[in-house]
Amino acid sequence: MSSLIESLPMEMLEKICFYVSSKEDKSSFRLISKRFEAAGSSIFRELRLWPDLTKTDDRSIYEFPSVHGQIPECDYYEHILADPHLAKSVRSVHVDTWDCNLGDPVNRFNLLTMFCNITRVPNLKRATLRFPLPDREELRMPGYDYDGAMEDRTVLLDNFLEFMNMTNINELAIENFATICDCEDRQGPPEVLERLRSLTIVSELTTLRSESFHLPHLETLALGKHVFRHDDQVEWIIRHRKTLRNLYLDGCSLNYFAKFILDGDDSEDPRDGLILHPSFSLDGQDIGVVSYPKRWHHIFKRFQQKLDNLRNFGFGFIKQRYIFGFGVYPSEVVEDKLKNRIFEERYCSYDDTMISTDAQSVGDPFLGAPGAGEEYHVGFPFPRCDLEDALALNELLVSIGSPSDPKIVEMGRVAKDLETARRLRPYSTKIALMKGPTFRPKE
């Protein structure tokens, strides 16, 4: 019987080991055979830690998740680190934080202790620090302490990076560091770990201020829900052209138009490529207006011209990552999940008075529905360049050796037809959507 089980494919052995519930049994697979040892070790390749919110004293205890996703009775984290054999199996550590606990001294001490213990993992290659997504309504409340929340997050991020410098990781992921898409860029992660080969940054439609650091060995860059709003961001990516081979843009938006509250220091925006428009007053506040004239087809062509060593490129939207607070890792799923396509949320506007982008709004007030958002976008219409974007994306994919995808071009043509129908016969848009790509407006 034993020999029959061992003859199973390694994938099936890993599944069998995965569903063993006892931690003692999980740590004893090496006593059965070398194949079971290898299969059992796969369970401990990823160590995921999050706050135990069931504790009555509000003190976060970070634990390893059980097979069925329930918080275990014992502390797997300490158990794994205490066993040299299991600790050697860990390749990836993922840490989830909770905002309400970041400023508490006891919880901060627990976090720092946990960061320190991570350095005891000898074969660690990847580390992820995830901050929680904020509640949109909470952000709009007058008493929300944005600066205080960012101060706690910044201190925690700096501590995390300091401890990660003591490890051998070459892949780093930071998720949801900034809480809003502010018109002024907030300082993102500082220059860290020059040996990094993979960097993943997932945000909630925020802008990374990245021009201050360079990663000389960067091969893979994955940006999730990142906002492009000036030329500096594109040029920062291009500056890594000597080493960059994989670039994935998941759910990223181009901020073509923004309104922001002037606080006295914003006499002009120095960012390359931005156009500053005349300001105006609204409810006693001075409102500034900027626009970014570039479109995605300009950026795709720029990548095609400058990224000589690029071999894989992804531009699309992985929906399941943003449904729940605990999502998936961008650079681990993009090759299978991120399908190249032209999606409408790739363009967004920003309103500082609402602390929101149109892509974050509920319903369809901005994204081009007939008659919706027209007053808001006077002089700054929603970009309708689906065909141009689709053709440029397809040309970029072909230039790096990816097969031509006629579906992308067809999507652009259909969108172009629908926009033509919307202009000629605005009330027939719903009919056009129902009829699909064969619809043509009557003369």
Give an account of the 3D structure.
The chain is built from 16 helices and 14 strands. It is of the alpha/beta class. The protein has one domain (2-255, 294-363). Strands 1, 2, 3, 4, 5, 6, 7, 8, 9, 10, 11, 12, 13 and 14 form a 14-stranded mixed β-sheet that branches. Helix 11 links the parallel strand 7 (220-228) and strand 8 (246-250). Helix 8 (105-118) packs parallel to helix 10 (146-164) and helix 14 (386-399) runs antiparallel to helix 15. The chain starts with a helix and ends in an 8-residue tail after the last helix. The model is unreliable at 53-74, 181-189, 323-331, 359-376 and 426-443 (pLDDT under 50).
**What order do the helices and strands follow?**
HHHHEEHHEHHEHHEEEHEEEEHEHEEHHH
Structural class: alpha/beta
Q: Work out the helix count.
A: 16
Mean pLDDT: 69
Outline, from the CA principal axes?
A: globular
Main sheet attributes: strand count, strand direction, barrel closure: 14 strands, mixed
Summed up, the domain count is 1
| Model regions low in confidence, pLDDT < 50 over at least 5 residues | 53-74, 181-189, 323-331, 359-376, 426-443
Query: How many β strands by DSSP?
Result: 14
Helix content: 25-40%
Beta percentage is 15-25%
Radius of gyration: 24 Å
Intertermini distance: 75 Å
Protein name: F-box domain-containing protein
Domain F-box: 2-53
